[in-house]
Specification:
Elements: H1 12-48, H2 62-77, H3 82-98, H4 100-107, H5 113-123, H6 128-141, H7 147-161, H8 166-174, E1 178-183, E2 189-194, H9 197-216, H10 223-237, E3 255-256, H11 259-262, E4 270-272, E5 276-278, H12 280-288, E6 296-298, E7 305-308, H13 315-326, E8 343-346, E9 361-364, H14 366-374, E10 378-381, E11 387-390, E12 396-399, H15 410-420
Antiparallel strand pairs: 1-2, 3-4, 4-5, 6-7, 8-9, 10-11, 11-12
Helix pairs in contact: 1-2, 1-3, 1-4, 2-3, 3-5, 4-6, 5-7, 6-7, 9-10
Length: about 425
């Protein structure tokens, strides 16, 4: 009798793949549990019935206060943007309250959270039998395709369910058009343009045609690079055809460059407003092409900005400038709106005696300015350019200034102190100082 061969060891590659799939199933099940907890939090907050806390102006409804408080709380606790948090909340509520079959498929791990997001997004506006049919159909389809494929199928099912509302839904969707900027590594960033599909495809087609023309003329750049370069050139140097739009406007960037770096004897990185540190070569190019300079004084020990240049002192403008330099972005936790696009808020409400002084001013985006005044969020200035934010649920966040240079090296401070003790009769002339 021939002995049977010993059982072969399982292929570790296959084992690893199976474990990934098993973990995805667990993640889907946990996502379903999370969806229930999100809706639980919403219900508990609804029972609290928070009211508008503002002292004047239009009053927010309880429903709006509830939604804003929930989104801001969850965004900070889960380290999400408020947009992604709104997707989490909307998807959770839709799954638990309106899409039982999709929710069951997620709970059993047959579909992923990404699939559930697609189904919930396109279910908005569906009711009754149309919603039930859509839920049943998409729950089955989602187990067979990836989320991108499901997106197309979901749009198709919605059209079948309510073809008469297509124009209304397209008009509503157009109201969500926006531009967003996301920083990337090594001095790069991405610009996302969400707009109606015909315009987006037309923009892409123009980029392809322009790039192809340059390529045919012998340009050595790749088509991918050419498409990016021609669109960048059009956006920066082209003119708008929209009636009433101001012509001749060019983009501006703000760069904070340490004086010692400009002189070539320091190594501290320059700071591009809204992005962060940039490499010395890029900073040198930007400073070489700069049309104007401002000198900013900092404390050599702490790096804290002390004041703006007193030679261009304008009381109100100087206060605003100082606040924007200290906090280059909205001070609401997690917000990245540039200070130049934000409101200048009295941290202690002016109506309650808050003074119009630099120590009581900070930039808040228009949306978060309203959040501060209409909800139970509280902010306190700590006197050292930091602020403490307390959420309606009692969570505490510290907002630290971004507009701060690294302290000067001890050797430099020591040398400066020694120089200050020497006697000199020649007054420094700063008229031509470029910083």
């Amino acid at each position: 009798m021939t002995p049977s061969p010993p059982p072969s060891e399982p292929d570790p590659y296959v084992v690893a793949l199976d474990e990934v799939a098993a973990l995805d199933t667990q993640i889907a099940r946990l996502s379903a549990i999370r969806a229930r907890r999100v809706t639980d939090a919403q219900r508990h907050l609804h029972r609290q019935a928070p009211v508008d806390t503002s002292t004047g102006g239009p009053v927010w409804s309880t429903a709006r206060v509830e939604l804003v408080e929930l989104l801001t709380e969850l965004a900070l606790l889960t380290r999400r943007t408020e947009y992604r948090t709104s997707v989490l909340v909307d998807t959770s509520v839709a799954l638990v309250s309106s899409l039982p079959l999709t929710f069951h498929a997620l709970s059993t791990g047959h579909i992923s959270w990404e699939h559930a997001e697609v189904i919930a997004k396109h279910a908005e506006g569906l009711e009754g039998d149309a919603l039930d049919t859509y839920d049943a159909r998409l729950a089955v389809l989602a187990a067979e395709v990836n989320p991108k494929q499901l997106e197309k199928k979901a749009r198709h099912e919605v059209e079948l369910a309510q073809p008469s509302t297509a124009a209304d839904r397209a008009e509503k969707a157009a109201g969500t058009r926006r531009i967003s900027i996301d920083p990337a590594a090594d001095g790069m960033a991405s610009l996302t343009l969400l707009a109606p599909a015909p315009e987006i495809h037309a923009i892409a087609d123009r980029a392809v045609r322009l790039a192809a023309g340059l390529k045919a003329a012998g340009d050595p750049r790749s088509m991918g690079h050419l498409k990016v370069d021609v669109l960048t050139d059009l956006l920066l140097n082209g003119e708008t055809s929209i009636p009433g739009a101001t012509r001749g406007i060019r983009g501006r960037v703000h760069v904070m460059v340490p004086a010692m770096t400009i002189l070539g004897v320091g190594e501290e990185a320059a700071i591009l407003r809204g992005y962060g540190p940039i490499d010395p070569a890029t900073a040198a190019q930007l400073t070489a092409d700069a049309t104007s300079w401002r000198r900013i004084l900092t404390d050599p020990i702490t790096g804290r900005i002390l004041t703006t240049d007193p030679r261009d002192y304008r009381l109100t403008a100087a206060m605003v400038d100082h606040a924007r330099l200290v906090h280059p972005e909205c001070i609401f936790p997690g917000c990245t709106v540039p200070a130049e696009q934000a409101d200048m808020d009295h941290t202690e409400d002016h109506a309650y005696g808050g003074g119009t002084i630099p120590e009581n001013l900070a930039p808040l985006s228009a949306e978060h300015h309203r959040v501060k005044h209409h909800t139970r969020w509280e902010f306190i200035q700590n006197g050292d350019d930091t602020l403490t934010a307390t959420s309606p649920a009692g969570h505490v966040y510290t907002i630290r200034p971004e507009g701060r240079m690294r302290p000067a090296p001890p050797a430099v401070i020591k040398a400066a102190a020694a120089a200050a003790n020497t006697t000199t009769t020649e007054e420094d002339d700063h008229d031509d100082c470029p910083f």
